[in-house]
Every structure is written in C-alpha cells, then in structure tokens.
Amino acid sequence: MPFKAVIFDLDGTLLDTIKDIADSMNTVLKKIGFPTYKTEAYYYFVGEGMDVLCKKVIPEPHNTPELIKKCVEMMKIEYQRNWLNNTKPYPGIPELLTELEKRKIKLAVLSNKPDAFTKLFVQKLLPQVNFSMVLGETPDFPKKPAPDGALYIARELRILPEDFIYLGDSAIDIITALSAGMYPVGALWGFRPAEELITSGAKKLINRPDELLEIIS
C-alpha cells in the first residue's frame, strides 16, 4: 500500500538537539542548587515535554509542582539562549525530506517540545522544506503518546491515518503511531535503543534516513 504522508518526531529524529538541551538544563540545575548530569543521561530524560524533564532531573523529594514550574520557566529562557549552539539536522535528513517532497509525499512534524520552539527549530534549521503542518506541545491537545495531535494532522491534511508513516526514535512515538492507526517506523540514529522501539511495537527500524524511501515505495 503506498503511503501518502509522513509525520516526523523532532528531537532525535529530524534534529540532534541533545547537547543544547543538556547544557541548558545543567545551567538551570546549577542556578537552583542541584547536581548536573552528563549529556548522555539526557537521552532518557527527554521526550515527554519540559515539565517531565524538570521532574526527572530534580531529585526527590525536591521536585515539587512549584519548583518544577520554576524550572520550566528558567529552562525556556536558558534554552532560548543556547538552542542553536550545537543543534543541527541529522546527516541525510535534508536529502530525505527533499526527495519525499519530489514524490509528492505530505510532510508534518509532531513534537512534545513547546509549540513555539518546535516551529522555530523547523523554520531555522529546515527552511527549505515545505511542511504541511508543524505542531508542538500546546494546550489544545494532550502530549504524545496520546494520538490526538497525530489525528488532528491527519484530519487537517485530509489523509486517512492508515496512509501515514510515523517516524520517531522512542517508545512514545511508536505508541502514538499505533494509537492513531498509523504505520510506526523507528529511527535508530536517535536517542533510544532498538530494544525500546521493538518492544513498543515498531513495524520497521531504519539505520539511515534514506532507508525510509524503501518503505514509502
């Protein structure tokens, strides 16, 4: 069955964002008096939104709702300063997106990163790509793995969910895809291991972005 559209996760799928996230959050942790973490630890902290990130990095019992809210506010300010220091598209991503556009495949982004950041990242780092929709965390929808955002994209593009590939690098993405009735593909160049993607139900795993073209065709 030919697919008509692809939804991409952002962090760990389209863009390698981990260093700037880690540096920004470690700066916040220093300011509020808590230990910092190695960059590699953030592979398992990210993916569920800034509020969950703050809850994970602040040690218990200090991660109260009040301190988490303060942490999120500080992180937004710090990340705004640092997000372009190291973040860039993964090798092969711009070429993949260009080829998909040539094939008339509709493209969208769905992220748990705040909506304003999500749109800014795509605009600045993938300016040549004509995404049909870019959607980050917003009060209008529950965060992934709830399927609401993915289904909203499908409705807006007037394409059936089963005609979508959903490409992501974590269990959250795979579960989102399955819950929305889309075809889940795991990106092995991202933040999480193959075992997580397989266990959560990925139909295919790919090592390089261009391998998605084989699934499309």
Automatic annotation (TrEMBL):
GO terms, biological process: DNA repair
One Pfam family cited in the UniProt record for this chain: HAD_2
Keywords, comma-separated and alphabetical: Hydrolase
Recorded GO CC terms: cytosol
Keyword flag Lipid biosynthesis: no
SUPFAM superfamilies: HAD-like
ATP-binding is among the record's keywords: no
One Gene Ontology MF term: phosphoglycolate phosphatase activity
NCBIfam families, alphabetized: HAD-SF-IA-v1 (TIGR01549)
Protein name: HAD family hydrolase
Organism per entry: candidate division WOR-3 bacterium
